[in-house]
Design goal:
Blueprint lengths: L4 H16 L12 H11 L13 E8 L6 E8 L6 E10 L5 E10 L11 E9 L5 E7 L11 E13 L2 E17 L10 E16 L2 E14 L13 E9 L4 E5 L1
Antiparallel strand pairs: 1-2, 2-3, 3-4, 5-6, 6-7, 7-8, 8-9, 9-10, 10-11, 11-12
């Protein structure tokens, strides 16, 4: 798909804005004070509160789990004072008494191109039915950093799927769901001779299984955009679909080309 002139330039800037924007608050529930208190007690952190309340939590996401209505899913990125990183806590809570059912702790490294923002986290309760008895949920991370002013590529909307194992949550898939790649010029500069491709992935559950979990079909739609009319003949500007299959190896999903 070719996009030229002013309209293309507008789309170019929109793509860049989307790449570095956060998800709308309308798609994500804020965590209640009661959930903050329960998680803070579990982590034994007195200052476990949002930054605008003089706390250490930078980003949050809470959502009821449609799969099990008695449970609520929550994720928090918070500052423990360690330079260039934020701590991550993902938790499943009993909705009635806010008891911690299962949880996962990790860190998010930060650098010149990665930064945790106020709405970087979003719980995804899509129907990730990995087996008859295993239903995963997702955590999406959106980078808040502006990134390089003239980059060769960019990726964002990182999806991590978590499976429950008694008191633990285990990440079984981590994948960037959107990306850009410069074919000519660079991303973020609007030089007037930039050509780039944009890819967006979706996941669907296959009927086949590997090591007890369903295979995942990854479908990526790739389109080519430009802010110039002078596109070299050797650059393919046609939209295309790329499919791959992710299979579970007993610990995590590995993506294979189809």
């Amino acid at each position: 798909m070719k996009l030229f002139g002013l309209k293309c330039l507008q789309i170019f800037f929109f793509a860049l804005l989307f790449a570095n924007s956060t998800f709308s608050k309308e798609t994500d529930s804020r965590c209640s004070d009661e959930i903050y208190d329960a998680v803070g007690r579990h982590l034994k952190i007195a200052a476990f509160a949002p930054r605008n309340q003089n706390g250490i939590v930078v980003s949050e996401s809470c959502k009821s789990w449609p799969y099990k209505n008695n449970l609520v899913l929550a994720a928090f990125a918070y500052d423990t004072g360690v330079e260039y990183e934020k701590s991550l806590f993902v938790v499943v809570l009993d909705k009635q008494n806010l008891r911690v059912i299962s949880s996962y702790k990790d860190v998010i490294g930060e650098d010149a191109i990665t930064e945790v923002g106020e709405t970087s986290l979003r719980i995804d309760t899509g129907k990730f039915q990995l087996s008859k008895d295993a239903r995963a949920f997702g955590l999406r991370f959106t980078n808040s950093s502006r990134g390089p002013s003239c980059g060769d590529g960019a990726s964002w909307d990182t999806l991590t799927l978590f499976a429950q194992e008694k008191k633990k949550l285990r990440p079984v898939l981590r994948m960037d769901m959107q990306n850009q790649k410069a074919l000519s010029g660079c991303i973020g500069s609007a030089t007037g001779h930039d050509i780039w491709e944009y890819g967006k992935k979706v996941i669907s559950i296959e009927k086949t299984m590997s090591n007890g979990f369903a295979d995942l079909l990854i479908t990526e739609t790739i389109t080519v955009h430009s802010n110039t009319d002078d596109i070299p003949n050797d650059i393919n500007t046609r939209a295309r679909i790329h499919r791959s299959l992710a299979k579970y190896n007993g610990r995590e999903y590995i993506e294979y080309l189809r």
